[in-house]
Amino acid sequence: MAHLKFTVLSFLLIFSIFSCKEDQVTVTLKTKTENLTSTVWQVQSASAYGGLSVVYSRDQANNGYDLSKVRLSFKTNGVVTAIDNNGNTSSNGTWKFTNNEATIEITGVNVAGLSAGSLTVVQLTDKNFDFNSKASFPQLGISDVDATVKMTPAP
């Protein structure tokens, strides 16, 4: 009888050990709005072509056009704040996703050549905001050309 109790207890112990579920890790992906509004964005690199090429890279020592001070900050209430390439002037506008979050429509902001209008989202995570847009650089004689911009969180 003692042997039967020991066998039943052993079976129950082994059953309880192997029937325990492993802890499940839940990964919650952020929405595009959460990614866009979670940080202040700075230009990592930019390129625009049309008559004259304008290329900027944060990792490059000598850039023809300095975008190191440009910042964009998107708020959940639809306000976007932009700081220009001199780091001095701040302007506010509005933003909203359109086209199933494939584009961002911006009004009231014109900073560092990027006009208010439509930004085509290429990549949007909490670490990268890449988009295509139209750009104008009147001081360089360039107007309404295609631009590609890669942004990362500002320090």
Write the layout of secondary structure elements.
Layout: H1 2-19, H2 32-37, E1 40-49, E2 54-57, E3 71-74, E4 79-83, E5 90-98, E6 103-107, E7 117-124, E8 129-137, E9 142-153
Antiparallel strand pairs: 1-2, 1-3, 1-9, 3-4, 4-5, 5-6, 6-7, 7-8, 8-9
Characterise the protein shown here.
By secondary structure, the chain is α+β, with helices and mostly antiparallel strands. Helices cover 15% and strands 43% of the residues. The chain is built from two helices and nine strands, in the order H-H-E-E-E-E-E-E-E-E-E. The protein has helices at residues 2-19, 32-37, and strands at residues 40-49, 54-57, 71-74, 79-83, 90-98, 103-107, 117-124, 129-137, 142-153. The chain has an eight-stranded antiparallel β-barrel. The protein is globular and about 60 Å long.
